[in-house]
Specification:
NAD(P)-bd_dom_sf, NAD, SDR family NAD(P)-dependent oxidoreductase, 12 strands, Rossmann fold
Length: 261
């Protein structure tokens, strides 16, 4: 039986766990929704010894990687996966970036360092842009009154539906994909304004007013989000993994979430 150990059973990793469990895998995990306590080293080591595959979705902590710091020396020859971020590419001033682009120049320096460490361990590193899905989308932000439209005409972002991340990771496992980085993003980088406007259309609401950054009074984290501008290319994942996004643009993704509701 194939056995997966997940470090950090969060929003995305829990869906990967469900998909593999449905295919007969045994899945164990750390995190509040998991069955293992990360602090229970003996318990984690036992699960690690049994696992054929390992996936980490644990973000950097204090400029380092908790999983590699704690267990990097005992990972052996297992299949390794790591959920990273396209934030490692920094600001590209709207240009396209693929897996060959430089990393570590943006605000996600700690993430870039962890990304590099997992690559050095022989992992499949999945670089993810803005993740959305049921319970975590522009539809929810519009309904909560927290949606903004910012007057930045040249600003674009990439995003990916959580189901497409699951499909990409499963494809990498099924094909025993080569080690290395893979961008999992949809086919249409676009402005956040366009996504908010589409969510409003689906909900039958008027879009929020167009504001400057100062008028929007965004949090430091949100302001950092707007400080970088890039388009994420997904061609490698398509070629090597045989992956195609089920939701190639935000329109299909939001429509599917709305239909489920």
């Amino acid at each position: 039986m194939s056995r997966l150990l997940i470090f950090g059973l969060g929003y995305t990793a829990s869906r990967i766990a469900d998909a593999l469990h449905g295919r007969g895998w045994e899945v164990r995990a750390t995190g509040s929704a998991g069955d293992l306590d990360f602090a229970d080293r003996e318990g984690v080591l036992a699960a690690l010894d049994d696992a054929s595959h390992l996936l980490s979705s644990v973000p950097p902590a204090e400029e380092s990687d908790p999983v590699l710091d704690g267990f990097g020396d005992v990972l052996g020859d297992k299949w390794l996966g790591y959920l990273s971020s396209t934030g490692v590419y920094g600001d590209a001033q709207g240009a396209w970036v693929d897996e060959s682009a430089p990393v570590g120049t943006g605000r996600r320096a700690a993430r870039a360092e962890c990304d590099s460490r997992w690559l050095a361990m022989g992992a499949r590193v999945f670089r993810l842009p803005g993740i959305y899905g049921p319970g975590r989308s522009a539809l929810d932000r519009v309904r909560s009154g927290k949606a903004h439209r910012i007057d930045l005409p040249e600003q674009v972002f990439s995003r990916v539906h959580v189901d497409d991340i699951v499909a990409g990771v499963v494809a990498a496992i099924d094909s025993d994909a080569p080690e290395g980085a893979y961008n999992l993003s949809d086919d249409l980088p676009t402005s956040q304004n366009a996504v908010i406007e589409e969510a409003c259309r689906l909900l039958g609401q008027e879009p929020p007013p167009l504001q400057s950054m100062e008028e929007a009074d965004l949090s430091p984290m949100a302001r950092g989000f707007y400080a970088e501008n890039r388009r994420v290319a997904n061609g490698k994942a398509k070629r090597v993994l045989g992956w195609e996004p089920l939701y190639p643009t935000y329109r299909e993704g939001l429509a599917a979430i709305r239909a489920r509701e």
